[in-house]
Amino acid sequence: MAEREIVFRVTRYRPTAGGRPTFQDYRIPVRDDMVVLDGLNYIKDHVDPSLTFRWSCRMGICGSCGANVDGRPRLTCGTYIRDLGKRIVKVEPLSNFPILKDLVVDFDDFLNKLASVKPHIIRKDWGDWTKEYTQYPEDLEAYRQQSLCINCMLCYAACPVVGASPEFVGPAASALALRYIRDTRDEGAAERLARLNTKTGVWECTFVGECSVVCPKDVDPAGAIQTLKFLATQRHMRRLLMPGAR
Amino acid sequence: MPNEYPARRRSGWWLRNPRYFMFQMREIGGVVSALYGLVLLNLLMQLSAGESAYNSFLTTLRTPPVLYLNLVFFGFVVWHAITWFMLIGKAQPIRLTREPLPWKIVFGINLILWFVVSGAVVYLIFGGM
């Protein structure tokens, strides 16, 4: 397969040196079957072993190789260099996250937000552990779309509201909250809606919609947040009209 | 975490992506809608103040600078309305069948309704002229 040379312009940030992140150019040979992650690995293996970035599965499942490629949040393992159609490919760390080193960002804040919506099945009584909780295909279909989230955080990088209000719970955590609220086995909707019906919850969203555009799994977090606004309002009105209701 | 580089939103972020730009224009359209509301409130205040005050305010509204400003503001309000119509089908998908209606159909229906209602209002105001 024919090779050609292009320039990878990659963000470098050395935590021990401090200062501001800078760009470093690497001229590398590429083929049409190479994705951006292949380019980064070529640099790491043959040009500069100090370049630091996260990756794991190489097949769009683990969600760890997200970066801003030519200004847009993408999974580097799913972005073909040929599709970018440029002689200079700019690779930067995901926006709206602190940078730890080069392309590696600190996502502790995201994990805390995710934990706050309790992304697991909640039941008051698990009953008989040997019993199966039957679900019909339509039950699965109700939350299938949100369950495809791989926590890649591209949606957080794309969301200008997260940039302006870092306390905002954000798109992926909201989508996963809806995933469990819609699960027929779950009984934790009230707890999650109480968390989301706050100033830093779903009401912070102004529906820019870019989170759904960049999502590599078509989870549609923007749509999920609007549904959560409806559910939160419904719960609020129910509690207002029927004191004691959950 | 020591020595991590803090997250910073870049100035001019909304110029880096056409969809961010369209979003910002939509939000400005919301502010302009509120301004139109204030103009209408002031119109009512002038009306209660008497005929001469009302006519004087109308004359001000008809001066070329205000008319040009109105044209720009009207553009923002139209954009605000169109972008919200685009979001209706995405915000609350309408399920008449197993699959929700595509947002583009909901958008089209809203546009048609908008034109029909606007046409009716224009006819009611200017129909007898």
Explain this structure to me?
- The complex is a heterodimer of chains A (246) and B (129).
- Chain A has 246 residues and is an alpha+beta fold.
- Chain A has 2 domains: 4-105, Roll (Ubiquitin-like (UB roll)); 108-241, Alpha-helical ferredoxin (Fumarate Reductase Iron-sulfur Protein, Chain B, domain 2).
- Chain A is built from 10 helices and 7 strands.
- In chain A, strands 2-1-5-3-4 form a 5-stranded mixed sheet. In chain A, strands 6-7 form a two-stranded antiparallel ribbon.
- In chain A, a hairpin with a 2-residue loop joins strand 3 (66-69) and strand 4.
- Chain A is elongated and about 65 Å long.
- Chain B has one domain (13-126): Fumarate reductase/succinate dehydrogenase, transmembrane subunit (3 helical TM bundles of succinate and fumarate reductases).
- Helices cover 74% and strands 0% of the residues of chain B.
- Chain B is built from 4 helices and no strands.
- Chain B has helices at 18-49, 51-61, 64-91, 103-126.
- The longest helix of chain B has 32 residues, at 18-49.
- Chain B is flat, with a radius of gyration of 21 Å.
- The mean pLDDT of chain B is 91.
